Every structure is written in C-alpha cells, then in structure tokens.
Amino acid sequence: MKKTTIAFLSLLLILAVSACSSDTGSSDDSNQSNNTETVELTFSVWGNEHHVAMYEELLEEFYEDHPHIKVNIESYPHADYQQKMSVLAAGQELPDVGWVAERMVPQFVENGILRDVTEITEDPEFDFEDFYPSTLELWQHDGKLLGFPFSTPPMIMYFNKTIFDEAGVKTPNEHAEEGTWTWEQFEETAKAISSGEGANRIYGANLWIDWTNFATVLSHTWSAGGEIFNEDMTEFKWNSPEGIETFKMLQRMMFEDKSHVPPGENIPFETGRVGMFTFMYSYIANVRGIDDFEWDIAPLPSGPEGTAPLLGQAGLVAFEGSEHPEAAMELLKFLASKKGIQAQSQFFVPPRQSVLESDEFVNVPNNPPRESIERALLNEMDNGRIYPLHKDWTQIESIIVSGFDELFSQSATPEEILQKMENEINPILQK
C-alpha cells in the first residue's frame, strides 16, 4: 500500500509539471500575440536624405499592419559602412536589418553575420518567383539565401545637355544612336566641351563619385578585353596593355587636356560645371531636382569588346544577433515585397520583373525620357559585370587606392603603378 501511494503521488506530480509546462507555453504565445509593448528595430543604410525620406514614408504602411514595431533608420557614409558594420558585429551591436553592397558580402559571409532568410521565400504572397534569378546569385550560399537584392543597376552616364548644346557638340545619346559612342569619342568629347578657367572652369567629365571609388574605370579595361583579376580571384590581371591604357587615359584627361575634374576636387554634377558624370542610377535622387540646366542619362562608352558597365548590387539583409528576430524578418519581408521594391524603385533599378517593367518605375516625376532609361539601363542589364569579390577586398582595395594616389600625384608612371599593385596584391590572393 505504501508503494502504491508513492507511485500515485509521483504520477500526480508528473501530471502537475506537464500541465504547468503546457500552461506556460500557452501563456507565452498569448503574451506574444497580445503584447502591446513597442519593439524597436534598427535599419542601417548608407543613403542620403532622399532615400531616408522614402523609407520613412514607406514604413508608414508597414506600421499599419505592425503597430507595435518602431523602425529607426541609421545612415552611415558609404566609404565607412563596411568597417562600421564590422565594429558593430564585434561589439554584438549590429542593426536588425540593413543594406549590404556586393563588395561586403564575402567578408560578412565569412564572419557569419548574415541570417538565413530562406523562410520568407516560402510565403506565396511574397511571390519569390518575381525576382530575376541572376540578381539572386550573389546572395545564395551553401543552399541558403542570405538576402534580397533591392538595387541591380548598371553604371550609367549623366550628362549636362545644356553644356553640349552651348558647345555645339553631339551628346552621348546621339553618338550611341549612331554607334560611335566609344571611349575614344568620350575622351574627345570631354575635351571639346571643357572651357573657362579657375572657379568658372567647365570640366568635360568626372569618373569619380569620391576619390577612393574607382568603380567606373573598370569598365574601360573590361570593354577593351582586359581583366582586373582572373576568374577565380587568384591572380591580379590589371597589369596589362588594357589596364595601362586605362591609367594613361586618366593621365591625359587630368593633366594634359584638363578635361577631367582634378584629383581631390569635389565638383558635383549638380553644380553645372561637369559635362559628363558616371555613377549608379541611385544618384538620380540628387539630379531630379536640378532646374538650372537640362540633363539626361546615357550608357557608358563601348570598347572593342562592347560595353561593360559595372553592375552594382545592393541587398537587404537580416543581421544575426537581433533581439527581435521575428520582427526583423517581418520588416525584411515587407521591404523586399513588391510594394517595398516599387517604392525603392524611385532611386534603384529593381530586381523584380513586375516592377522593372512597370510604368511606375519609368514615369517617376522628373525622370529622364523613357528612351533614355531603356538605352542606359534596361538594354545594358545583360552587359553588366559584377564588382570583384574577395574576403580580403578591403586590403586589396586599399592597395589599389594607393596606386591611384600615385597617379594623381604624378609620382609614378602607369606601368610602375600597376606593377607595384601586382607585386602587393598577388600574395594576398594566393595565400
């Protein structure tokens, strides 16, 4: 009888613990669904005030279905962004969701700070099939999807049509229509439209958004049949006849013709003192408000191998370590949805087919003409080249930037600069 009583009491104890556990689980689910406490998320970008304003307006729709989530947008300079994220990762203070550029992906993947977001693709309403497959390759690693692209633009050329009209020179689009828009013609055109002296100097071209960003000049080498690296990124290939000619073109334009904005000087396209400026479509946010002169966009010049614009990619990711992972995934899913990509297409070339082909993308107020957008963007998507990717890219890029510093200071020849780059970069690639 004593043994029976003990067994009975033990059974009661087990049932009580089980009931307790069950009640706790139900209570947690209920608390989570009925929780009225505000959850704060951080969303990091490197955009300007126009991009931030766009997101703040877009998020008002997100809040309608997620009233207990508050999103704080933090913007950092593009040049500092990768280092900033690395510092935040070390301190376990990463944002919940953020932008990531293609050049950052290898390091962030190696560091394990990008969350697997494959589960979002399983939601039928998200319509994952709407994404162009080619835009997803950068974000697919070991069977996981680590982000969604929101911008996939080929590099384009902005040009001051008023300067061209006043100089009586054919525009890039006129040359493109005639099949004569080459890098040689670009150099001649830049020289032809340059004029004035000192603070009133009109420069024919500027290939830099800032003096540490050499992205545009890669297209000059590629279009001539040259390469920066070999296919598997184990050998530096820019020290070649094609690479040397790229550096010599810059040398001529900056120091002989004086048709290019001088090294170190900041003369934005919006000032009206630059005839041609190359950068991504996202820069159009700065250009749409110009009313002092007429402007338009055109494709980059071509070389013997055709056009080879840098195909920039930026994606939306969820960072590991979020205190509110479910809320972060909801935010990411909204930003990468059709509605989110449509809103972002004000500034970025969209990766969703339904958005790229929409009138809403083309007919944004103060946009260039449809034919210019088709020529510079849509027709160039298949010609784009992805930015070089390597886990030690920051170190490699620093060496390349130092080489350009030597070119800008005229302290070494193009041949000497590229040989030095090769000597310093190859050991990094081959280690």
UniProtKB/TrEMBL annotation:
Classification via Pfam families: SBP_bac_8
PROSITE patterns given in the database record: PROKAR_LIPOPROTEIN (PS51257)
Signal peptide coordinates: 1-19
Keywords for the protein's UniProt record, in alphabetical order: Cell membrane, Lipoprotein, Membrane, Palmitate, Signal, Sugar transport, Transport
Domain of life: Bacteria
UniProt protein name: Multiple sugar transport system substrate-binding protein
